[in-house]
Fold:
Amino acid sequence: MKTGVVDVGGGLRGIYACGVLDRCLEEGVTFDLGIGVSAGSANLITFFAGQKGRNFRFYTEYAQRPEYMSLKNFLKKRSYVDLDYVYSTLSNSDGEDPLDYEAFAKNPAEFLVVATNAETGEGKYFDRTDIRQDCYDVMKASSTLPVVCRPYPIGGQLYFDGALFDPVPVKKALDCGCDRVVLLLTKPETPPREPGKDLRLARLLQKTHPNAAEGLRLRAGRYNQGVALTQRLAKEGRAVILAPDDTCGVDTLTRDAEPLCRLYDKGRADFEKLARFLG
Structure:
């Protein structure tokens, strides 16, 4: 029985999934495959490294710093979120809060990170072979919010957030041979996602990256299709969806620690639903 976990990210709302995964570490729950989108990739690599509490510090402490995200970053580097600060300065072996790369490398679970080619709009599923000690560029690429950040370069290609191509990669998990899938959402399961904000961002992106802009226009529909697929699997006993009943006022770039902590606690509490599913 191969079980996969899919974390869709969602910027700072990802602290909900962080709460679920911290409980998984406490209770000894493991997965055979993890697929991360955007902030979900950071959640999962830390989970597979066995570092309980590390993601929580990034959401509640480091995100408060102007070096992490600020208008100054945007004016100076054309990226509101400084992904090099997050995934290199803080996360490298000589950083303030390093990823335990050795533990991650020893974990046998498959690990995929979704990013979107900024020029073609096609998706790229990076895997373990694309990650090395102190080289976490695939998480940077997957977390590059269009318009807010400039596209991130890897291997001569530019990438945006993985959600532009595959916002809910449950089908990918099935294609990888999973019998059961755990889907971690960071906003309520219903109602369906609306495309309003994406359409506004797509207009801003259209001139420089038209194919990526099309991905933004399609994101809500693709997201809803992924959730609907998982709901069908759930009725068959092959999937479970964990989602907050509300986001506690947390949005993609919210930095207020109090609502972030409440959303984290919701994830910790909702672990019980996962425990029942896994039996």
